[in-house]
Amino acid sequence: MTALNGIKIALLSSVIFLGACAPAQPLNFSVQNVQASAVTVDADLRGITVTPGAPNERTGVLPPEVAAITNIWKEATQEALARAAIFNDGSKRHVNLEIKILKLDSPGAGFTFPTDTTASYTLVDRANGSIVFTQLISAEGETPLNFAFIGAIRARESINRSVQNNIAAFVDAAEHSPLAISRMQPPTS
Length: 189
Fold this sequence. Notes:
The protein is an alpha+beta fold and 189 residues long. It has 3 helices and 6 strands, in the order H-E-E-H-E-E-E-H-E. The chain has a 4-stranded mixed beta sheet with strand order 2-3-4-5. It has a two-stranded antiparallel sheet with strand order 1-6.
């Protein structure tokens, strides 16, 4: 064996060893660059729940560990909505937001790990249980090869990006919904 081959083997072994020891990429669904909205929804958002969709509701694959991410999804949604300041805390209409995760499909192998998410977002009036607004949101997230050498890290980041894109799309849908009014207009009674 030549010295060059020995160096290549040692380098490859180091990369494999370091890859196996790499810390797990944390789940971070926090949506970046959310700006205060120019509109408001005449409703006071009181609660958010996030649950996996029932088998008959799902539009695709959900991993077995999906229940472990519901709280992270909820916190990221709360954070994005708070930064957008889209709901009116002084409104007489009180609503809950129900989010059902219907698809979280991440490939087991690949380069950019395109991950697809679909979730149903439903605003429910707390006074009478009526549905005020509902939207099915689908989004994708990918991680470029230059993000990390280790595929597991890129795969996890693709999940982060897909969910972040999904939450951002909901905020945008709420801003453009029939419930949204200009901040200059008085709320309807």
